[in-house]
Amino acid sequence: MSAANSTGLVVAARDVSMVYRSNHARPYLAVRGVTLEIAAGEMLGIVGESGSGKSTLALAIAGLAGRGGDAMPRICGGQLEVHGTRLRHVGRRARDRLTLQVGFLRQDAAERLSPLLTVAENVAEPIYQRDRRFSVREASDAVATVIDAVRLPLSLMNRLPYQLSSGQRQRVALARAIVLEPTLLVADEPTRGVDASVRDGVLDTLRDLHRDRGLTAIVVSSDLAVLSRIAPKLAVMQKGILVGLGDLDTLTTAPENEYLKGLARSRAALGSAKTEKFHG
Ligand code: ADP
Ligand code: MG
């Protein structure tokens, strides 16, 4: 199975629109005509205010749109190709094959860890979901490898989620997302609910995983400070529309749109905060 299609792209979104059919009187277009490409080995940040469609797009890239009934969004326009799989009208088998290659850290992943399973069992779960008869020994090797990769001490393996700090729980969720050795990682709000003091540690871990494992990565956040730390290239969403794509310098030099102007201001504020820290 190749990591990318013949054009070397891991993600190719062409005029993708997405709709929700629940919770709204009429079908609700949450993503409107998004076109973007992500090459193998790239790290893309998706930024935008709450409700701008970031998670909806992330779900689609993770191969989950159109699955699980009306609570999930559907691709209703354009075409989204991930690892060469066309996801609009995708069949179940092709989708299952794809989801094994994509690690997805959901927005609420840390809260969704099973409270009754140990750290090691939580991380191993996707292995056994894929193959119930997988060798226990190989599984525990894989678990130890990813626990180490997310910089958790192996001594935490037998703890339960509630015995961990917020940052540790997020690392467990991250370990779980990469245990099947995905070639693409989609991390939705990876620092949400993580104490500010350990937030940068979680981000640095993501960056290291991207660098050391050659993972293509998409990191979603409404916080520019988070993304400017790790993502060289940003996609800016506003009300379901992609309003900017590029590096932060390009996006914030002579911004045309109101949201990008705001981004330029918060970037300036970030810059001066850094300078203050540096001098203080
Ligand atoms: P973001 O992640 O940028 O905060 P989302 O992608 O979660 O935004 O949401 C985009 C829009 O879709 C919002 O207006 C939101 O209310 C709507 N939406 C999100 N999830 C659902 C759902 N399960 N059912 C119906 N509408 C939804
Ligand atoms: Mg979201």
Task: List the topology elements.
Elements: E1 9-20, E2 28-39, E3 43-48, H1 54-61, E4 74-82, E5 85-86, H2 92-101, E6 102-105, H3 119-130, H4 136-149, H5 166-178, E7 184-188, H6 196-213, E8 216-221, H7 224-230, E9 233-238, E10 241-246, H8 248-252, H9 258-279
Parallel strand pairs: 3-8, 3-9, 6-7, 7-8
Antiparallel strand pairs: 1-2, 1-4, 4-5, 9-10
Helix pairs in contact: 3-4, 3-5, 4-5
The structure holds adenosine-5'-diphosphate and magnesium ion (MG).
Characterize the structure shown:
The structure is a single chain. This protein has 280 residues and is an alpha/beta fold. The chain has a domain at 3-40 and 52-101 and 221-279: Rossmann fold (3-Layer(aba) Sandwich). Helix content is 39%, strand content 24%. It has helices spanning 54-61, 92-101, 119-130, 136-149, 166-178, 196-213, 224-230, 248-252, 258-279; strands at residues 9-20, 28-39, 43-48, 74-82, 85-86, 102-105, 184-188, 216-221, 233-238, 241-246. The strands form two sheets. A six-stranded mixed beta sheet has the order 6-7-8-3-9-10, sandwiched between helices. A four-stranded antiparallel beta sheet has the order 2-1-4-5, with helices on one face.
List its traits:
alpha/beta, Rossmann fold, six-stranded mixed β-sheet, binds magnesium ion
